[in-house]
Amino acid sequence: QVKLVESGGGSVEAGGSLEISCIIFGYTRSRYYMAWFRQAPGKEREGVAAIDSDASTSYLDSVKGRFTIHKDVIKNTLYLQMNSLKPEDTAMYYCAAEYPSERRTPYGGSWQDIWRYTYWGQGTQVTVSS
Prior knowledge:
Elements: E1 3-7, E2 10-13, E3 18-25, E4 33-39, E5 46-52, E6 57-59, E7 67-72, E8 77-82, E9 91-98, E10 119-120, E11 124-129
Parallel strand pairs: 2-11
Antiparallel strand pairs: 1-3, 3-8, 4-5, 4-9, 5-6, 7-8, 9-10, 9-11
């Protein structure tokens, strides 16, 4: 069983920086797809950034150039470095994981599809004040 635990959220002023992390517990596989999602009150959950086991990354347009996703393989931890934060970045941030070996056929949809991911963390709150 895989368990994801996020941490590092908090309150920051606009223009500031914050790094959130997600520790992956349990048996994991060499091939994976991991992502950060966020959900603001009254809004749908949206994909923010994703990374695969080849270290290829994808980003939501509104965070490109400001956010960086990376994974420390030794620590088995996923990170999201967030710079130049804006009030509209305020949300609960969740990490998510998919292991292709658990599927009968490869997933052919988008990295932003919520249903792609089997494992989810409990979330960490990020609040950006103006």
